[in-house]
Write a structure and sequence with these properties.
TetR/AcrR family transcriptional regulator, globular, transcription, Arc Repressor Mutant, subunit A, 90 residues, transcription regulation, DNA-binding, DNA binding, 4 helices, mainly alpha
Length: 90
């Protein structure tokens, strides 16, 4: 099956979730200082402007904060034994 590409200028439906999932794994593997915005984009498979579209004022820092918040929420839910409602997997 051939995947159809979207036209330019329209963000993908789940690009923010892909960025946060990529940030979770990269931050766990490499840490904040050793990770570049390009690494987040390559790992997530989203376009260059998507990170700055979803995190306009803080870029890499804002994405890292969202990823850390997601990891914290997932960990606390796991420790409490409650089901997680978040779809991302880090």
């Amino acid at each position: 099956m051939v995947e159809r590409r979207r036209g330019p200028g329209r963000p993908a439906y789940d690009s923010k979730q892909k960025l946060v999932a990529a940030a979770c794994s990269l931050l766990a593997e490499r840490g904040f200082e050793a990770t570049s915005p390009q690494m987040f984009q390559q790992r997530s498979g989203v376009g260059h402007g998507s990170m700055y579209h979803h995190f306009p004022s803080r870029g890499k820092e804002g994405l890292a904060l969202d990823a850390i918040s997601h990891m914290r929420t997932s960990t606390l839910a796991f420790l409490d034994g409650s089901p997680t409602t978040v779809k991302l997997r880090c």
